[in-house]
User: What shape does this take?
Amino acid sequence: MRHMLSRRQFLKSAGMTTATVCTAGLLSACGSGSSGSSSGAASADTSSYTILYSSQPSTLNYLTTSSDVEMVVGANCVDTLLEFDNKGALKEGLATSWEFDEATLTWTFHLRDENWVDMNGEVVAPVTAQDFVDALRYLLTPDYAASNVGLVTSYIAGADEYYNYQVNLTNANNGYVGDDGTTYTVDTAGVVTVAAPGAEAQTFQPVDFDAVGVKAVDEHTLTYTLTYNFPGFLSLLVYLPYEPAYGPLLEEMGDQFATSAETTYSCGAFYLAEYIPLESWVMKKNPENYDADNVFIETVSRIYNAEADVNGPEMVKRGEIDEATIGADILDSWLADESTKDLVSMDRPNTNYTYFYLFNFMPFYHEFSGQTVEGLDDAYEPENWAKAINSTNFRKAFLYGINNSVTLAVTAPEGYEGYKLNTVTPPSFCANDDGVDYTQCGDLASITEFFDEAKAKEYRDAAIQELTAQGVTFPVKVQLPYNPSTNNWDRQCQIFKQQLEGVLNDGADFIDIIITEGPSDNYLSAVRRAGKYCFQLCNWGADYSDPETETDPFYQAAGERGGRYAYLRTGVEDGFITGETADAIMAYMTAVEEAKAITGDINARYDAFAKAEAMLINNALVIPMGMSVPAYLATRLNYWEGQYASTGFSNKRLKGIHVLDHYVSMSEYEANRDAR
Assistant: This one.
């Protein structure tokens, strides 16, 4: 289970300034556990770790990405000010101590000596406070299209004003004209004028980066000034947008920063030694790192294989790689076979990720600032879908008709009850000042199991009557895509189709779920962000320890164009979403804004966010599904040794983990799990 802290407990743990060193734990590098098959024992080198990957990242730029597969370099090759230990408590990272001045809302961090190294592990320059400043300036440059910019503009004083000015200035310099005819011009003094048809023109005075609340006081002293006393700030520092980058390299490379090993400098446990797209990438232990004694892997090799799910287990048997996912389709046979049964264990539960279903509220081609939505292909009848999706009755038929237990059973054959969710936020994510779990705060406390066939059919019948009058034809085509590189996603879609159609098409010809295979590479850009779906499973990983992070996929501030999963406010503003659905969306936006404004009373803050989340779910704008189910693995890593947190990318870090001389068995896994 996740290590849960109330805010008082969290801040107390965050104040720890004594560095701790992870130990090998119950499984040591020279442990005497089961060695599995003789073929597995053939790969007994405990200094290296090799794994396949099947989805090609579109970038390695840790400052601009938020994609799961693209975080690997940022997580392992760049250190953060603070980090989590293997039980979820904050401790020293690049900062050795820190303090907060409540009067000025300023955090001050004191940095240790550390160096940047290049792809050969050669020292380039020391890491200084200015590297954090330069990284933030880069992230706030619109040309680089950072997906995490909201995690800075929302909390760092002056960042929102600076970024908005830069966006308007970029639009003016590029001669951009909005869909509605809005124009952007800039005069010789740098004043930008934004003129929308039928509205009074707005002017934006130049905002210098010096106005942003990040300062290098000296080489080893860094300050952040906040917009308000944000409870989750320290945990937010253990995430991509607050990582440092070497300023001269950023200036030299621009949008080519971190596109190769040559254009990436490292200051973490590992350095990026090689990167060949669609072939491999290699990380090597960084001997210059301050905590090198706690890095036990010399070389990490990731090899591209489009059929990793199929080929990986066979390569494990031959001792060619050190880890592979054991899919549900072969799990029983592996457990029944004497030569492989002791090779199977599980991944450490990754409880910061939750899964939910999203509807596409923008099924037509649409362009807006920094984003193009291609929309549905004609084969999926976007006009018909657009009418259907604006019906609350139609969406609630899905909400009450989906049996998440059936779908989860595909990836959790040994038991799924512990992974089902009726909320977007998982239990044990955070607790208020009274120790009450957030999912039991406010309106979330009354949310229980939704699956109810009778209710689903009631909403279905109401939707048919309502939508038939609007000219909707049935069955409504529902494009349901999946990423073929994600293990078992195709099987989940098949089971989902059978289950939901079995409920909603019983006595009616209501929906036709059409399963489509998306691309293995750049799936998010090609499918979700492009609007190439009617309905699909999405996930979200919390960025920091506060319920505000769970609003990030859905909330858009007024005038915020794009940057979220479902473009809900954009859909309302541009007329795609209408009627009671539009009213529900705007009520949700208002509720989030009210919650964000509460900073002094944590109990009231959590109740307010719970109210907003309940609105999102009860109006079937989002349908919760479940938590990340730990995969069955054949692995030589004891993941229980590694860094762990309910937020950010800590679980991707290999620091502190040993490569064993054998594959982990289920009994060894359970012993380590129980010890935690």
Summary: Residues 579-596 form the longest helix (18 residues).
